[in-house]
């Protein structure tokens, strides 16, 4: 745990230079706009510890798999969103000496990520080894208005000398992923052009042949007036630059504006890429930094208007939740159904920018409640488009007849993961993808999604589950053998309760969904039956048989569901008895010891209870929570939020708050000692869920919103915005009451503390706290 960042409600601030935490800061201060993103690297040279990172959404490379022992069915490669051209680079020489903070004395230093307006600023004074002092202020952002553009305002002022500055703004596409499996570079050069104050590099990914054109245009001012610079273009392999000298006076400010763009062949024809990049860069330069910044601030204000959470009385919690919402909005904007949400977003290479079940299980609820419904819909369509690949994936493993197994990790629908116990066995992801369809329809009411796309995915997944179970003559029931549940600290288990539960839930939901489509869109239903070659009676009959005869491990005496067969055979020690020195277990214990232990990495049975809570009475939920929570080490960032929501449901407000804090400031305080790899973007949505579903007790049932809020002891109030079926609601919870403001022109009926309530258009309802 590190606490070197200043607490501020709207900004992340680092006061003073902390070189040993530089890579953590590079992750935390990251910028993104859904289309591209980058770590907070410095513009000028830096020879200290750094992880360079620039990413263009959807531009990936299949890096050949590296495993010790090959297993049939392993994917050939791991797709990674590539580390792409560095477009921020500006080499600075002061009287011929390179400005490099690692070699300078840094006299003051401040960086700020302004979340309200969406920009990053860094100011410092550096004393060079040669004695000159300069003051630098750089401000930059990736535009959410012009999402192919990034701009930098780089200002430099000599403090104790007059002389010559040499500036070299550049674009470097000669980049290698730090995690390249065979130490290879993944980019080839296609074309480059270097003019006096602008330049372009078109690079191509090997194997996938994406083209990305990165361009820059430079404008320089002194004392606020544009100056003509005599720039000399330079070209090297995959690199262009413009170099120029400037005579500078002591205390005179020189500002270099760098207008940059990244255009990819995903969105432009390859032959137009260069010309289009020139146009985009020219238009940005024409608009100018100040106007772009103003538009950026306005666009962010609009995003906050719909997705902010305001906490009064706890600035650290406020900063934490805003940071989470900010990073989610920087990562995924939802206009492009080919894109998804990597667990680290654009903040690092880990997890390769690929898609995990995190998207459906954790991120979807955030986008459902805070964005236009088209945005979460695009997340579903992403999986719909991968259905054929999921069927092929299942075929590779021996399944037939249109059974679909979605990959554990994917970029384009193909499986990328290569640990057999996860790739082949952590199949609960299939359930999360089916459940997301239900979640989307429950929230938006858009049941037409079923006939358009949803049914096909549900049938594919149901066919998989029906083949993945087998009849046990000994038990006279269906069993599901050789699986890994969400708790990855147990592999290859039989009858994981969560996986079996979500499997039969999928079968039930698919049967209902088919009936719904048949009743409402009979022609489309016939079309789908033909397209899917569905033998309705036979297949749904078989699914029903599985539903009716599935085996779920449980312990009747303890009154709990068992994570899997034999769970109680384990030595029943508790997390509280683990010495701090032995944690995290995944760094301190052998894998063998972890697997045999009772310790649970992340919510597993509790994940199922969270998803299907309406099936269980409070006593059942409490017994399971009381049993599993003391055995859970939460070594996945996805875990505490689920425990927080269940604790809130059980009325354990203190623990609900404790778990919330663990996720809200996970990266700001580097809680898990791994923020340098990138931020935990997908679990940030879990933090949001802890507030809205946990403290706010928000649920959707029978087409209505339900709230059952409490307020954490240390807060004076909190409020959150929710979109729901065309309404925008602001829910504010104070110590005294709950206020729900309907910012829409139609009345809404919802449910507060178990009572139906109607709130008129543009009106506010106030409700006294109640224990329900
Ligand atoms: C978790 C998985 C998760 C993955 C990516 C792992 O540590 O156990 O549930 O999908 O991280 O976030």
Automatic annotation (TrEMBL):
<dbReference type="InterPro" id="IPR005194">
    <property type="entry name" value="Glyco_hydro_65_C"/>
</dbReference>
<dbReference type="Pfam" id="PF03633">
    <property type="entry name" value="Glyco_hydro_65C"/>
</dbReference>
<dbReference type="InterPro" id="IPR011013">
    <property type="entry name" value="Gal_mutarotase_sf_dom"/>
</dbReference>
<feature type="domain" description="Glycoside hydrolase family 65 C-terminal">
    <location>
        <begin position="698"/>
        <end position="758"/>
    </location>
</feature>
<dbReference type="InterPro" id="IPR037018">
    <property type="entry name" value="GH65_N"/>
</dbReference>
<dbReference type="Pfam" id="PF03636">
    <property type="entry name" value="Glyco_hydro_65N"/>
</dbReference>
<dbReference type="InterPro" id="IPR005196">
    <property type="entry name" value="Glyco_hydro_65_N"/>
</dbReference>
<feature type="domain" description="Glycoside hydrolase family 65 central catalytic">
    <location>
        <begin position="322"/>
        <end position="689"/>
    </location>
</feature>
<keyword id="KW-0378">Hydrolase</keyword>
<protein>
    <submittedName>
        <fullName>Glycoside hydrolase family 65 protein</fullName>
    </submittedName>
</protein>
<comment type="similarity">
    <text>Belongs to the glycosyl hydrolase 65 family.</text>
</comment>
<dbReference type="InterPro" id="IPR012341">
    <property type="entry name" value="6hp_glycosidase-like_sf"/>
</dbReference>
<dbReference type="InterPro" id="IPR005195">
    <property type="entry name" value="Glyco_hydro_65_M"/>
</dbReference>
<dbReference type="Pfam" id="PF03632">
    <property type="entry name" value="Glyco_hydro_65m"/>
</dbReference>
<dbReference type="InterPro" id="IPR017045">
    <property type="entry name" value="Malt_Pase/Glycosyl_Hdrlase"/>
</dbReference>
<feature type="domain" description="Glycoside hydrolase family 65 N-terminal">
    <location>
        <begin position="13"/>
        <end position="265"/>
    </location>
</feature>
<dbReference type="GO" id="GO:0016787">
    <property type="term" value="F:hydrolase activity"/>
</dbReference>
<dbReference type="InterPro" id="IPR008928">
    <property type="entry name" value="6-hairpin_glycosidase_sf"/>
</dbReference>
């Amino acid at each position: 745990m590190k606490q070197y960042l200043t607490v501020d409600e709207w900004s992340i601030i680092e006061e003073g230079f902390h070189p040993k935490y530089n890579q953590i800061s590079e992750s935390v201060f990251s910028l993104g706009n859904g289309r591209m993103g980058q770590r907070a690297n410095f513009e000028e040279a830096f020879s200290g510890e750094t992880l360079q990172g620039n990413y263009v959404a959807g531009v990936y490379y299949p890096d050949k798999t590296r495993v010790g022992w090959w297993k049939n069915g392993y994917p050939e490669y791991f797709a990674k969103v590539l580390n792409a051209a560095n477009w921020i680079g500006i080499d600075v020489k002061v009287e011929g000496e390179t400005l490099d903070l690692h070699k300078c004395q840094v006299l003051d230093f401040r960086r700020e990520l302004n979340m309200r307006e969406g920009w990053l600023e860094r100011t410092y004074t550096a004393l060079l080894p040669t004695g000159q002092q300069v003051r630098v202020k750089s401000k930059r952002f990736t535009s959410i208005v012009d999402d192919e553009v990034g701009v930098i305002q780089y200002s430099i002022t000599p403090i104790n000398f007059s002389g010559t500055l040499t500036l070299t703004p550049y674009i470097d596409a000669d980049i290698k992923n730090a995690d390249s499996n065979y130490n290879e570079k993944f980019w080839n050069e296609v074309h480059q052009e270097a003019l006096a104050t602008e330049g372009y590099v078109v690079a191509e990914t090997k194997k996938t042949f994406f083209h990305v054109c990165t361009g820059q245009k430079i404008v320089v001012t002194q004392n606020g007036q544009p100056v003509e610079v005599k720039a000399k273009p330079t070209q090297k392999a995959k690199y262009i630059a413009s170099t120029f000298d400037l005579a500078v006076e002591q205390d005179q400010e020189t500002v270099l504006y760098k207008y940059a763009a990244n255009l990819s062949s995903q969105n432009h024809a390859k032959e137009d890429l260069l010309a289009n990049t020139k146009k985009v860069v020219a238009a940005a330069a024409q608009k100018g930094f100040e106007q772009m910044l103003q538009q950026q601030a306005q666009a962010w204000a609009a995003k906050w208007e719909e997705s902010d959470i305001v906490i009064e009385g706890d600035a650290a919690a406020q900063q934490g939740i805003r940071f989470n919402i900010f990073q989610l909005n920087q990562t995924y904007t939802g206009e492009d159904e080919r894109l998804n949400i990597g667990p680290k977003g654009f903040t690092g290479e880990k997890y390769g920018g690929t898609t995990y079940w995190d998207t459906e299980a954790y991120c979807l609820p955030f986008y459902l409640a805070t964005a236009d419904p088209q945005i979460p819909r695009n997340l579903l369509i992403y999986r719909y488009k991968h259905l054929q690949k999921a069927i092929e994936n299942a075929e590779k493993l021996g399944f037939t007849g249109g059974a679909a197994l979605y990959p554990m990790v994917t970029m384009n629908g193909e499986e990328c993961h290569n640990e057999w116990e996860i790739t082949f066995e952590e199949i609960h992801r299939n359930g999360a993808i089916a459940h997301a369809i239900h979640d989307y329809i429950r929230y938006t009411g858009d049941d037409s999604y079923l006939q358009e796309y949803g049914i096909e995915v549900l049938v594919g997944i149901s066919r998989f589950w029906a083949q993945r179970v087998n009849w046990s003559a000994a038990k006279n029931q269906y069993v599901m053998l050789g699986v890994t549940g969400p708790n990855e600290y147990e592999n290859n288990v039989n009858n994981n309760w969560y996986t079996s539960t979500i499997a039969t839930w999928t079968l039930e939901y698919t049967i209902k969904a088919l009936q719904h489509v048949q009743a409402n869109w009979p022609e489309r239903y016939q079309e789908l039956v033909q397209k899917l070659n569905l033998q309705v009676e036979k297949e749904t009959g078989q699914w029903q048989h599985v539903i009716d005869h599935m085996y779920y491990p449980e312990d009747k005496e303890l009154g709990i569901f068992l994570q899997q067969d034999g769970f109680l055979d384990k030595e029943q020690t508790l997390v509280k008895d683990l010495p701090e020195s032995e944690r995290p277990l995944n760094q301190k214990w052998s894998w063998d010891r972890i697997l045999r232990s009772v310790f649970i990495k992340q919510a597993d049975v509790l994940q199922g209870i969270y998803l299907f809570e309406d099936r269980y009475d409070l006593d059942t939920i409490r017994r399971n929570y009381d049993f599993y929570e003391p055995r859970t080490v939460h070594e996945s960032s996805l875990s505490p939020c689920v425990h927080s929501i269940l604790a809130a449901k059980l009325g354990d407000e203190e623990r609900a708050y404790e778990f919330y804090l663990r996720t809200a400031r996970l990266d700001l305080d580097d809680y898990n000692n791994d923020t340098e790899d990138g931020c935990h973007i997908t679990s940030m949505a879990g933090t949001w869920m802890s507030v809205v579903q946990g403290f706010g007790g928000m649920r959707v049932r029978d087409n209505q919103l339900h709230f059952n809020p409490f307020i954490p002891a240390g807060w004076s109030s909190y409020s959150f915005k929710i979109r729901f079926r065309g309404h925008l609601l602001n829910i504010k919870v104070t110590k005294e009451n709950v206020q729900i403001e309907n910012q829409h022109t139609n009345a809404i009926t919802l449910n507060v503390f178990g009572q139906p309530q109607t709130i008129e258009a543009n009106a506010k309802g106030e409700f006294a706290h109640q224990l329900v």
